[in-house]
Amino acid sequence: MSPAMSSASPAPSRLDLLAAMLRIRAYEERIVAFHDEGPFPHVCTSVGQEAAAVGVVSALRPDDQILTNHRSAGHLLARGADPGRLLAEVMGRSTGYCKGKSGTLHISAKELGVILTSTIVGGELSLAPGVALSRSMLGGEGIVVCFFGDGAACEGIFHESLNLASVWNLPVLYVCENNQWQAFVHRKETMTGDHVGPWAAAYGMDHLTVDGNDVEAVLEAATCAAAQVRQTRRPFLLEASTYRQRGHMEPHDQSYVDPAEIEAWLAKDPIDRLSARLLDAGELTPQGLEALRLQAREAMNAAAAFAQASPFPDPSELTTDVYA
Amino acid sequence: MSPAMSSASPAPSRLDLLAAMLRIRAYEERIVAFHDEGPFPHVCTSVGQEAAAVGVVSALRPDDQILTNHRSAGHLLARGADPGRLLAEVMGRSTGYCKGKSGTLHISAKELGVILTSTIVGGELSLAPGVALSRSMLGGEGIVVCFFGDGAACEGIFHESLNLASVWNLPVLYVCENNQWQAFVHRKETMTGDHVGPWAAAYGMDHLTVDGNDVEAVLEAATCAAAQVRQTRRPFLLEASTYRQRGHMEPHDQSYVDPAEIEAWLAKDPIDRLSARLLDAGELTPQGLEALRLQAREAMNAAAAFAQASPFPDPSELTTDVYA
Amino acid sequence: MSLMNAHEALGQALAEEMQRDSRVLMFGEGVATKRKDLLEAFGPQRVRNTPLAEGIIAGTAAGAAATGLRPVADLLFAPFLCFAMDGIVNSAGKLRYMSGGQFEFPMVILAMTGGGWTVGAQHNHNIEAWFVHSPGLKVVMPSTPADFKGLMKAAIRDDNPVLFFMDMALGFEPGEVPEGEWIVPLGQAAIRREGTDLTLISYAKTVHTCLAAADALAGQGLSAEVIDLRTLKPLDEATLLASVRKTGRAIVVHEAGALCGVGAEVAALLSEKAFDALKAPLVRITGPDAPAPSSYALEQAFMPQPAAIAQAGLDLVQRDALVGR
Amino acid sequence: MSLMNAHEALGQALAEEMQRDSRVLMFGEGVATKRKDLLEAFGPQRVRNTPLAEGIIAGTAAGAAATGLRPVADLLFAPFLCFAMDGIVNSAGKLRYMSGGQFEFPMVILAMTGGGWTVGAQHNHNIEAWFVHSPGLKVVMPSTPADFKGLMKAAIRDDNPVLFFMDMALGFEPGEVPEGEWIVPLGQAAIRREGTDLTLISYAKTVHTCLAAADALAGQGLSAEVIDLRTLKPLDEATLLASVRKTGRAIVVHEAGALCGVGAEVAALLSEKAFDALKAPLVRITGPDAPAPSSYALEQAFMPQPAAIAQAGLDLVQRDALVGR
Ligand SMILES: Cc1ncc(C[n+]2csc(CCOP(=O)(O)OP(=O)(O)O)c2C)c(N)n1
Ligand SMILES: Cc1ncc(C[n+]2csc(CCOP(=O)(O)OP(=O)(O)O)c2C)c(N)n1
Ligand SMILES: [Mg+2]
Ligand SMILES: [Mg+2]
């Protein structure tokens, strides 16, 4: 363990990691269930990408800050967000993190250091250097983590953001969740290589591509990467190879996806992989797993009940919070 | 010589190359002289970068098309533009290539295949794939050359343009004139490496960095690169390392530039280098050189006289050419 | 005639124009996936997915248009145009002029916007006025499936850049659409309902809001004329002026914010050119000067409602009596 | 008081505010090179050159503002904002609202525009109206060195994103500027000349054009009031309404295009809220709906001229007699 890492908070146990992933899965499944029940706001779920979220966020410290994209529920939950307030926001209720004004797509939670969920693809890349500049200039040891997709990496703002962070020496840990899809377009149609990580070379930036469906591997890589950013105050690009198991958004549609591809990736499901490991190692029993799953589902049912019972914002809220 | 190259028009002689560079130099010096005489529109001169312009443009065929940036006089003149109509445009006269509407900064000359001079840094990168798409879809063997600066390479549109040209297999020869400066900022402040060429790797694109002050080297590299684009119908990135010998624009100011840097690059002046070679080889006498220089100057004086004698556009032109 | 919704009408227009003119092509993020019928009919050269990069999508449209193609670029949602402004405004809108007329830019930029889907402010922002304000562009925003078809066909045939905005709320509303060669010329408003007491001027979904308000006003004995602008640039001044010279009163309605919006333009036009005919102040009823909220409750309040329009109409007419003008 | 030009006045405002508040910093392409005095006074952390990348400059300003800094980002020329719209409009303008008020965005975006330097349409495009139309932003465009200083200081202290436009033609015009703590509050217009017969409303360089027109009108016995808006968002409605309720006639003048411009907004406002006071149509005199030409001859014709304004003023007053209103 490097000296920088030794001062980090104690690493979460494998069971913690599993429980965190199960909570995210249960949250997203609750949303899918809402869609099955009737009209519900569109949501981009992160089913299949739980390891990237939990692995990276578990490597962070309380004073770190996060920016993320439309597929942010995992990042928020891993950071400790209250699923009730998340669902309330999705459902446009006044008890949501943003009073219902943002909806699913733009949740920020300052109290958790989650500065931004950007639904403008690339918006998170756009703001990240500025957030890191504040970290640099106002003191403190925190770093900034910016989650973005393989699609966002095709936006010009990716190039501008990484280049600026590099020449200005900003402490940003860029995390590309390469989930193979960019809404309705496969990654293969939009870039020549298979990986975004190596693009960091143009910016004189270190990078690492990790198996994004192995939460332990992600945690280890993210811990090293975060330590490097913390020490060097320079940016780093971490790519997590993963897969969007469902359609781009709910209600979900995968008619344009090769079933063989889905199947291959389902076999690499991050939750199944970690549970198998824990079962094999005798750290978990099948009953224990089922109990964890149930516990996560119950938490999400309670969250859903809270959200459903919450009031809509008063129409007078329409024009508040526009100006400071 | 590769088969693709053998079908190109005969390579220009070294004397042709020298004459072409002298014309550009004389043109820019005529503009500097105008500034010495009194108020004159701002112009970004290409003094010192003549080899890049002449070397690349000499490698092209009549049916190729060019897009370029604010420092475009060399590209236009090398392509055969009438210096009188160029100066008329700079001076806002109706005989200019664009009837005086563009001024120095946005000259296009469709008749020469010069689609665009973009003063929006990166505008040329923005339009180039579309021009190449037309080439691809409407037939013909022409390729598209897109000149841009090291500064433009920092714009997001650089990333988007090269990536699109690559995934769509568009015949674009990207030519980065890395002249070390980006208006009032040194390249070292805005990028971590010294060269833009290697950035092509992210796009699965071949690249080459060439001594941009050696016109023969540029010609050779550009001929190969153009041949490759022509054959493969895929983009290529050619970087010419060169230097902006004067300030960003006229009237000129270099107070912020390290004099040692200027001196070092003046010693590599592209015109001096080729003339020395020709003098050494006995292909040119000092008198011959002087005669060429004089000839170029006289041509530019005549051009200036033409421009000065040309009328301003009629005020009614203010609102014509807005819509087709 | 057949019954179809706006998405289908657009699809029909695109298919017909691509059939008619081999220079027409279409691209955007997911276009080839979502318009599989077009892809099958016209092949992967002419129906293309792009990388996620709005700047180069717009620039590529401009470059292609300048050199012989007639691209339709789908930019999905209006706020994403913020990444595409250079290609649209600085290139497509200006380069014909700057080149002294050397190039034409026959291209269409398609984008959705508007309330009704609770998608919030980064998917819903009614910025059509920006493009009305910018030179060299045309702007359309239809309200019926028939106009979606007819205006798209006209936009594709126009030799200038056309911004084509779809009000999301209208996408799945069915309407009668003429078969085949059905063109709605750019620059022509439609009188959706004739009336004599006041003119309601609008475009996109709020045309329907105005029609509902006109019904309500009829119940109060007031006769409202309803004008659907259809094209926001160029504006159909003649139709507007004729109506307001007849009725003497006008309310302009749109979901976009009021400040420097299309309603401001219409009011300014009327206040200059129909001044002597005006019997009452020109009123605007618009979305608030605030980002679009996501919450259903707030989004409903964001969109102009028939009752408010009807009330404003009543006030305008009753005011005459009060002011004695 | 001391005599200085607008560039110097801006420099003074920046220096004073950076001195006053260590959270204020400035960046942009060439900022550290061109503002060497600031660089020397405040060091390379707070005065920074950036790569040539307007998108990330704006985004970085927004990100920094949201988390405790107070950035001033110099984007050089207004057309370059086309690359920066997402950071300004979708982020800075909307994220306070979208977050339910969790963040503030104290930042200033500086850009030059306007005719007089023959730089043509990719450096000169008067797009201030776009930002007036967009929620969550403020917009200023001063006409005197004193206002350049006072409005910049107010803009830096404001907790919201402020677009600060400099009309290039004014950059080197000298004027008296108060020393030290001189704040011109955002949202307050200035009456540059009092008058009774008509109101000329303008901002930036055309304020001076209006003053010249007012002189010409005085020569014809007409008394023109001249209002300098200074802040375009929020508009100083009270001052505008009071003046036009007094004079009954107004001409709005700006160099930006007419369609959905600030003049449209002012005319719409007056036509709604000062209707009963109006004695004549509301007139706009603006730059044409065309890209800015480079040629000196055309550029002069592009900019509103005093004679045209004076003539329009005369027409408005004489019209009363004709119409007998
Ligand atoms: C600027 C912008 N362009 C397009 C969209 C529409 N859109 C939303 S998500 C998405 C795909 C994003 O792909 P990626 O970045 O890989 O993230 P993922 O959805 O795979 O997590 C697209 C095209 C958008 N929201 N913003
Ligand atoms: C979008 C945009 N940003 C900024 C500018 C101002 N500007 C003009 S040229 C220039 C430097 C360009 O550098 P580079 O691309 O290296 O070209 P060079 O001038 O060195 O030839 C800058 C910043 C501009 N014209 N357009
Ligand atoms: Mg993806
Ligand atoms: Mg350069």
Account of the protein in words:
The complex is a heterotetramer, with two copies of chain A (324 residues) and two copies of chain C (325 residues). Chain A is of the alpha/beta class and 324 residues long. Chain A has one domain: Thiamin diphosphate (ThDP)-binding fold, Pyr/PP domains (Rossmann fold). Chain A is 43% helix and 12% strand. Chain A has a six-stranded parallel β-sheet, with helices on both faces. In chain A, helix 7 links the parallel strand 3 and strand 4 (172-178). In chain A, helix 6 (123-138) packs parallel to helix 7. Residues 1-7 of chain A have low confidence and may be disordered. Chain C has 325 residues and is α/β, with parallel strands linked by helices. Chain C has two domains: 2-177, Thiamin diphosphate (ThDP)-binding fold, Pyr/PP domains (Rossmann fold), CATH 3.40.50.970; 190-323, Rossmann fold (3-Layer(aba) Sandwich), CATH 3.40.50.920. Chain C is 41% helix and 22% strand. Chain C is built from 13 helices and 14 strands. Chain C has a seven-stranded mixed β-sheet, with helices on both faces. In chain C, helix 11 (262-273) links the parallel strand 13 and strand 14. In chain C, helix 1 (6-20) packs parallel to helix 8 (145-157). The longest helix of chain C is centred in the last third of the chain and has 18 residues, at 306-323. The mean pLDDT of chain C is 97. Chains C and D meet through helix 5, helix 7 and helix 11 of C and helix 5, helix 7 and helix 11 of D. The complex binds thiamine diphosphate (2 copies) and magnesium ion (2 copies). One thiamine diphosphate sits between chains B (44, 70-71, 119-122, 149-152, 179, 181-183, 244) and D (29, 52, 54, 76, 80, 83).
